[in-house]
Specification:
Shape of chain B: globular
Helix content of chain A: over 70%
Oligomer: heterodimer
Largest interface: A-B, 75 and 69 residues
Structural class of chain A: mainly alpha
Strand content of chain B: under 5%
Order of helices and strands of chain B: HHHHHHHHEEHHHHHHHHHHHHHHHH
Strand order of the largest sheet of chain B: 1-2
Distance between the termini of chain B: 50 Å
Largest sheet of chain A: none
Number of helices of chain A: 8
Largest sheet of chain B: 2 strands, antiparallel
């Protein structure tokens, strides 16, 4: 844990130093600009420049990371006193599967649309990580995105990414036409029916 | 009299069907969120904030979205006790102190009594705090009307100093978190000069990168590749909040619980609930202390409900005739933190609504929400937007009543939900975080950033970096910078305007002492840990830790 603490703090210190340097930058179009001339507290009587606040904040970050490193070297902070590993085997595996799953989810949103990505992610999580029965996993990963579709796309017209043109044309456009034509009562019926199917599959899976 | 009239009108509006419905839904959602281990009011409010943009456009009533979120906030304070008592793990950090005596009560077979005590104490705490709120808020906001730039900046400094002095976390890490949050808020365009700042790639460079990967001018329906702008869009507040509280916290909880949770069996019936309510007479002391102390700790900028409930527990134990019974299942030990966390959550709303400075991480999210709905939190709110303020205060009273009734009536249902496997809950939270962020900003760049922040937040949390200060800082960042720069502009770059009460401010407001006094309190709070450390060194060996 101590090594992780020190390495993280060094990494954050480097970021802080970079941000300090970046704060001194001038506007792109101003070729006459001299670096650091915007971090003063009163420039030409017009108050602090645009780099003033970020520069001193980044300086504050740098000072605190150095403080953290010193504390860690002197074993003054709890993580630097702990003999536990930064992440044990379980934590590493979990982060890989969960974090990796999330990244894959985001990539899929661009490719196959938000709701299909949700279905794939839910199925992956429930079946592979949760080891839930197949029926329950499949039904949940269909019902959850369906509910979200009804709520966001249909009821609230907050349109989500639809993937490639082909997916949009063949699935979402006809579906949108169908559901937008329904009354609120009918939409609630769709909510309820899909909920009932979910409850039924949960019950069936328990037996 | 004016207040009574305004309040009764506010309660009337809050009782309108759409507001009442939102309050009921909010309370129920809050109870669930609070009861689920690892999720608290701030997670619920952050993840569900995007949904209120929708509510805001669907109802004409300006108070409706806030009534919904405030109800979640209250509900979560009630709900936290449910898992503290039956699972022995706090449903939220605000309910940590409830486990101290709630869990032993449950193990003794008195889970039902502990649950009822928690619910009733929460109700009393919430109601007492709402009464205080109604009395204090108009007064405080009328005082704050005269605040200038130095005063507001000094108050923000006080909020951050509270984290350092009273937060109890590692000081350099808290400091890092604050500076980092404030810095994130500066990315994008500078509001004063209008020039871009800390924008890591301009559009030309972004296109060059995309071309290198061969994806520039990609299919128009692939949103990420077309969301050029990236950092010049700035770093939206919700991106950090949902990342930290939706993704990061969830990964943390998965690792901490390893998907396994065991639950104490609880019997509950009408007769048992009534017996629990009668048994409240043994817990009046904790309830009273929690209600009063919680409110005043809650008012402190940035302190919030967690320190409020821990302090109330400590004080109740300290003045008790039988301090040894605490930790063994003393009802006072359940009542004090539960009354306090509800009271503090109302208290935390006070500086948010009257000064524009949140009193807790959750109110920081609420504050950001108000800005997005087009309201300007701060002293002018009471003058300019009474149609928002009074229905909201009215809803505090109503939500408390709804929360206690729903809580008591549906305890068995909450216990059933707590049995829901974590491997179903976790992906649902992830999905809500992602779709919520997209719905808020219509941009995949924000969603990517949110998930990366979440994973980063999890890694930093393992190393004990507190992240609530960063969330608060990113909310306050833009205002803090604006006030600081304007104050320095008017004082010709002289920092004395913040700390010297005799500094000559032309056309100064009558509250000229407020900025210096606040600044000095903040500086003392920042110095407090260092002073205490010095005193301990002077005294020689470190004090032995006593129970």
């Amino acid at each position: 844990m101590r090594r992780a603490e020190i390495l993280t703090a060094i990494f954050l210190a480097l970021i802080s130093a970079y941000l300090m340097w970046k704060s001194g930058e001038g506007p792109e179009w101003d070729t006459e600009y001299v670096r650091w001339s915007n971090i003063g507290v009163n420039i030409d009587g017009s108050g602090p420049g645009k780099g003033f606040w970020p520069f001193y904040l980044a300086l504050g970050m740098l000072i605190s990371t150095i403080w953290i490193i010193v504390n860690a070297i002197r074993r003054q902070s709890p993580p630097s006193q702990s003999d536990e590993p930064f992440m044990d085997g379980y934590a590493k595996k979990m982060l890989l599967f969960v974090g990796g799953g999330l990244i894959a989810f985001l990539v899929l949103i661009d490719l196959i649309s938000m709701y299909a990505a949700i279905a794939v992610f839910m199925l992956y999580y429930m079946l592979f990580l949760g080891r839930h029965p197949l029926l329950l996993s499949v039904v949940t990963s269909l019902v959850v995105p369906f509910w979200l579709y009804l709520f966001f796309d249909i009821l609230m017209t907050k349109v989500q990414p639809k993937g490639t043109r082909w997916i949009e044309d063949t699935i979402y456009n006809p579906a949108g036409e169908f559901f937008r034509g329904q009354s609120l009562v009918m939409l609630l019926v769709f909510f309820a029916v899909s909920g009932a199917i979910l409850a039924f599959s949960a019950r069936a899976s328990r037996q | 009299m004016e207040i009574v009239e305004a309040l009764s009108q506010g309660i009337w509006i809050a009782l309108q069907p759409h507001n009442l419905g939102l309050a009921v839904i909010g309370v129920v959602v809050g109870l669930f969120v609070g009861a689920l281990p690892g999720l608290g009011s701030v997670n619920g409010v952050a993840i569900l904030l995007p949904f209120t943009f929708v509510i805001n456009s669907a109802t004409a009533d300006p108070a409706s979205p806030m009534i919904f979120l405030a109800a979640i906030y209250y509900g979560a304070m009630y709900g936290g006790a449910i898992s503290s008592i039956t699972l022995g793990i706090p449903g939220a950090s605000t309910a940590v102190a409830t486990t101290f005596d709630g869990r032993p009560m449950a193990l003794k077979g008195e889970a039902d009594r502990a649950l009822v005590t928690a619910a009733v104490a929460s109700f009393i705490g919430g109601t007492v705090a709402t009464l205080f709120f109604t009395g204090f808020a108009p007064f405080l906001s009328s005082v704050a009307l005269d605040f200038g730039n130095p005063e507001i900046f000094a108050l923000m400094l006080l909020a951050f100093a509270t984290f350092i002095g009273l937060g109890g976390d590692d000081i350099p890490k808290t400091l890092f978190s604050i500076c980092f949050g404030l810095l994130l808020a500066t990315v994008g365009f500078d509001q004063i000069s209008g020039e871009p700042r800390l924008v890591f790639m301009n559009e030309r460079e972004q296109l060059a990168v995309l071309e290198t990967f061969g994806v520039a001018n990609a299919d128009e329906s692939v949103p990420f590749f077309n969301s050029v702008g990236w950092f010049s869009r700035g770093i939206q507040f919700l991106v950090l909040a949902i990342g930290v509280y939706g993704i990061g916290e969830m990964i943390w909880t998965i690792n901490a619980s390893r998907y396994k949770i065991t639950m104490t069996e609880t019997e509950i019936s009408f007769a048992r609930i009534m017996r629990g309510i009668i048994g409240m007479k043994d817990a009046w002391k904790g309830t009273t202390i929690g209600s009063l102390l919680g409110f005043f700790v809650g008012i402190l900028p940035a302190a919030g409900a967690t320190p409020g409930s821990l302090m109330s527990y400590g004080v109740t134990k300290m003045i008790s005739r039988d301090p040894k019974s605490y930790g063994q299942g003393n009802p006072d030990g359940v009542a004090a933190p539960e009354a306090a966390n509800n009271s503090a959550s109302t208290g935390a709303m006070l500086p948010m609504m009257t000064l524009g400075i949140p009193g807790s991480p959750t109110t920081a999210v609420l504050l950001a929400g108000m800005v997005i709905w087009g309201l300007e939190p701060g002293p002018r709110l009471f003058e300019d937007r009474p149609e928002f303020v009074w229905p909201l205060i009215g809803s505090f009273y109503i939500s408390n009543i709804i929360a206690v009734l729903v809580n008591l009536a549906f305890i068995p249902l909450f216990l059933w939900v707590l049995r829901m496997p974590f491997t179903i809950l976790a992906p649902v939270i992830f999905v809500l975080s992602i779709i919520g962020t997209y719905a808020a900003y219509d941009n995949m760049y924000d969603v990517w950033l949110m998930v990366l922040f979440g994973i980063g937040a999890y890694l930093l949390r393992i190393l004990d970096y507190p992240l609530a200060p960063a969330v608060l800082a990113v909310v306050l960042g833009a205002t803090a910078e604006e006030k600081l720069r304007q104050a320095l502009l008017l004082s010709d770059g002289n920092f004395e305007v913040f700390y010297n009460p005799f500094f000559d401010r032309d056309g100064k407001g009558q509250e000229w002492w407020i900025a210096p006094v606040t600044t000095w309190i903040a500086l003392i709070l920042i110095a407090l840990p260092i002073i205490l450390w010095g005193v301990r060194k002077l005294r020689g060996a470190p004090r032995p830790t006593t129970e």
